[in-house]
Amino acid sequence: MQLTKYTDYTLRTLLxxxxxxxxxxxxxxxxxxxxxxxSHLVKVVHQLGKNGFIITVRGKNGGIRLAKEPNKIQLSQxxxxxxxxxxxxxxxxxxxxxCPLIDKCKLKLVFYDAREAFMRSLEDKYLNDxx
Amino acid sequence: MQLTKYTDYTLRTLLxxxxxxxxxxxxxxxxxxxxxxxSHLVKVVHQLGKNGFIITVRGKNGGIRLAKEPNKIQLSQxxxxxxxxxxxxxxxxxxxxxCPLIDKCKLKLVFYDAREAFMRSLEDKYLNDxx
Lengths: 131, 131
Description:
2 copies of one chain form a homodimer.
Chain A: H1 5-19, H2 27-34, H3 38-50, E1 54-57, E2 63-66, H4 75-82, H5 107-123, H6 127-130
Antiparallel strand pairs in A: 1-2
């Protein structure tokens, strides 16, 4: 069981910004620090901006910074944003399902509960808890 | 976040055997029913046998069946067997980690807890709960 690379890069970006709150950061320096391609980070930063986690300052000396205090950035919110489907098994989605038991089997319900337990455990965790 | 195909096939094999406890089943019929390649199922069946979940009867009229009652087959045990690493993030393993923050960052601890919450929620679930 694994979270996507996209979630990983998103969390790393937030960690970087959390560690450099005194100034603006750039995608290039995060890309270099984490050895993650710029194009991946552009997508990450765009989504984080659109969802109010970070602020982009345009212009020559522009850059990005957290839009709120690290103790207001809930990790479960971030993961729900970056892992919107959380389809732990292929039968979680009608598009991917190939299992003929889909209508009878209760496995899905069991894994729904497990996924919720996973997410609930992230609900009281904030960015400042991991900095 | 997704469990591996291997876990999926293992659970489907157990479900099939749970639904046909009155007789021996064959890998070929499970392969056909679930439209999963025989070679994948051979590995699954081998591991399930080695770990005491199923019994293989050799010979012309041979086949496989559950080695214990469905209410004795704990789903968390199965998932721990088929997802031995459960490396939710690349930093869970020194081999895969590329993040320079590995020694300072507490993200791993947070996700360890979340993973444990996931597994705990499977601990009181048995094969008969999903049949």
